[in-house]
Every structure is written in structure tokens, then in C-alpha cells.
Design brief:
Layout (H helix, E strand, L loop, with lengths): L3 H16 L12 H5 L3 H4 L3 H4 L8 E5 L21 E5 L2 E11 L10 H31 L11 E4 L4 E4 L7 H11 L6 E5 L1 H10 L17 E5 L10 E7 L3 E6 L2 H4 L2 E3 L5 E7 L7 E11 L10 E16 L11 E5 L3
Parallel strand pairs: 5-14, 6-7
Antiparallel strand pairs: 1-2, 3-13, 4-5, 6-8, 8-14, 9-13, 10-11, 11-12, 12-13
Helix pairs in contact: 1-5
Length: 340
């Protein structure tokens, strides 16, 4: 039984690419985590050095953009003000998913122990993904800017719902109106958009209408990368998008050092702390904890004398956006397409 869990993990990761395609184990195809995992260190460099334990949250300090009234002459005894900085706290959440396996249940089941292990690992990973996806969507809604310039071009700022609204008459140029509004707020360059299914379909339609069409709308596609969120919805609008400067949001994953360095013994009294790469290819690394105990599993498919292995898959995540010092100001800007 030496290194049995290690071999099971290798088997799981080898087979996962195929088994995750099974209909029963299908995963909702959300692109939110893909966006947030693009550049985790671009927003908070060396974040992993700030968090050294479960209990340590960490914070980041940044220099503040300050503005002063310009003078109209050169003073003999000029006197300025000191610069300032501000603090950005990191808020972490642990996602953990336990499951257990009976050693002898495989003797009475058409599915052997490796097959049952693979299935429970898939369930754990998919549950954690669902939790992360829901929290990223909530993060975008909570962290969207409440401070924006208005009016700007064809976009109208709704100071109650904190949404830039695009009139129905401008729906053919929704994405250009969006880029213009972002530029007016100082967000120039490439943008990442989290859009609902309606605006994603509109983008596909508009971005294929080039110079050979009666109306050229394809020019709007430049400097935009669109991520579709099937759950994004608001009854007040015909379509929605969150516009974000490229590299301005990130997910910061973390697992304990003991898991990273494989501490313990799977056959020992304390069990094993180890880790494994996300088989869905997101770049995440999950922590895995396991230990064994004796149990009577006769009524649950095992035997009167049995060994149970308890497992827990876990990961810590913090979601961040590039900090801005303005009150309620954020680089995440929400846009809504109005109906007729």
C-alpha cells in the first residue's frame, strides 16, 4: 500500500481529460476564472509571500495619485504638500470539499477503488469550481465602480444603478460607445469584457460585418477580448457587459506550504498533506488532505471490519482589482444596452 494515494492521483490526472467530458460530469462553461487567472501577479506582485498561513490575510500598500492646483508664477519660497499612500487589504476565502472511501466497498461493487476515487475527485473539483465561479460573478457586481464621468459621448451614466447606459439607437455601435466611455475615464488600451450571452452574440454578429457589408461594424473589435458569463442578467437591460482594463483583475490562489511539500505519511497516524494540479487546466493547484481510520461499513456497501480513508480537497482564493484611491472608484465598469 506504500504510495497508493500518489498512484491514484497520477491515475486521476491521466484520465481526467476524458472523463470530464462525460455528460453526467459536464461542467458549465464559464470563462470567469480564465479571465481572473490570466495574470495573478500583475495586480499584486509577490502576493504569495504576503500569505504564509491560513490565518494571515496580508495587505498591499500603493502610492496615491494626488492633485494640486497649479501656480501661475515661480515662487521664491515655494511650499508643497507631502505625497500619500493607501492600503489594499486582501480578503481570502477557503473552498473545501471532503469525501470518503471504503477500502472493502470495492469488493462488493462493480466499480473498483480507483474508479470510485476518480469519481469523487471529479465531484470535489467540480463543486469547488462552481463555488469559485459564483464568487467571481458576485465580486464583479460588488466591486464595479460607483464613480464615473458623465456625460461621455453616447453613454449616459446612471448614478443610481452605477451603469453606463447605451441607447437602443446606438446598439449597432455598443462596443465603440463602451470603449469611448472607458477612454474618457482614463482606461485606454486593451479591454477585457465580461458579457452576457446576448452581448456575446451581438459581438459575433457585429464583428463580422466588415467593409464589404452595407454597414461596417467590425472596426469595434480592436483591443477587446470578450468572456461570456451565462449567468449575467439584469431585467433593466437588453444586454450587459463589465469592461475591465486588461490585467486589472486577478484571482490569487494559495495552498499551505505543508501541502506543497508533501508532509506526512498516507499510512501513518497523521495521514498525508499533498497537492495536485487542476485537471481542468486552469492553472490552479489544489491541496489534498487524507487520513485513514477503522470503521464498520457493512450498512454502506462495505464490511464489518473496514478501513475508511477521509479526503479533503481545498484551495484558498482572493479576488482583487487594480486599486484606485478614489472613494467607491474601481477599474470595473458596468455597461447596459437599453431596449427600444
Amino acid at each position: 500500500m506504500a504510495n497508493y494515494i500518489t498512484s491514484l492521483l497520477l491515475d486521476f490526472q491521466t484520465k481526467a481529460g476524458g472523463v470530464f467530458k462525460d455528460t453526467e460530469m459536464r461542467e458549465k462553461q464559464s470563462q470567469l476564472l480564465s479571465l481572473f487567472m490570466k495574470n495573478p501577479t500583475s495586480v499584486i506582485p509577490d502576493y504569495d509571500k504576503l500569505k504564509t498561513s491560513d490565518q494571515r490575510a496580508g495587505a498591499v500598500y500603493l502610492l496615491k495619485r494626488t492633485m494640486e492646483t497649479l501656480g501661475t508664477n515661480r515662487a521664491a519660497l515655494h511650499a508643497g504638500n507631502f505625497g500619500d499612500s493607501f492600503k489594499k487589504d486582501l480578503t481570502w476565502k477557503t473552498y473545501s470539499r471532503p469525501f470518503k472511501l471504503s477500502m472493502k466497498a470495492g469488493d462488493r461493487n462493480i466499480f473498483d477503488n480507483p474508479e470510485r476515487f476518480n469519481n469523487e475527485m471529479k465531484n470535489a473539483v467540480l463543486d469547488i469550481h462552481a463555488g469559485i465561479d459564483a464568487d467571481i460573478a458576485a465580486f464583479l457586481a460588488l466591486q464595479k465602480t460607483q464613480l464615473a464621468k458623465s456625460p461621455v459621448g453616447k453613454a449616459t451614466w446612471n448614478g443610481t444603478t452605477f451603469v453606463y447606459e447605451v441607447a437602443n439607437a446606438e446598439k449597432e455601435y455598443y462596443f465603440q460607445v463602451l470603449k469611448s466611455a472607458m477612454s474618457a475615464n482614463g482606461h485606454r488600451g486593451a479591454l477585457d469584457l465580461v458579457s452576457d450571452s446576448i452581448q456575446k452574440m451581438e459581438a459575433e454578429r457585429l464583428f463580422t460585418n466588415g467593409t464589404t457589408n452595407a454597414k461596417n461594424t467590425a472596426f469595434q473589435a480592436s483591443n477587446l477580448t470578450i468572456y461570456e458569463d451565462h449567468n449575467l442578467a439584469d431585467v433593466a437591460y437588453k444586454g450587459l457587459s463589465y469592461a475591465i482594463p486588461e490585467g486589472a483583475v486577478a484571482a490569487l490562489p494559495w495552498i499551505p506550504m505543508a501541502n506543497r511539500t508533501n508532509q506526512g505519511d498516507e499510512n501513518g497516524a497523521t495521514g498525508l498533506l499533498t497537492s495536485f494540479a487542476d485537471p481542468l487546466g486552469t492553472g490552479l493547484t489544489f491541496a489534498l488532505s487524507m487520513y485513514k481510520k477503522r470503521a464498520d461499513t457493512n450498512t454502506t456497501g462495505g464490511e464489518y471490519q473496514d478501513f475508511i480513508t477521509e479526503f479533503e480537497v481545498s484551495i484558498d482564493m482572493a479576488y482583487v482589482t487594480a486599486p484606485l484611491s478614489g472613494t467607491n472608484e474601481s477599474a470595473i465598469v458596468k455597461f447596459g444596452q437599453l431596449g427600444a
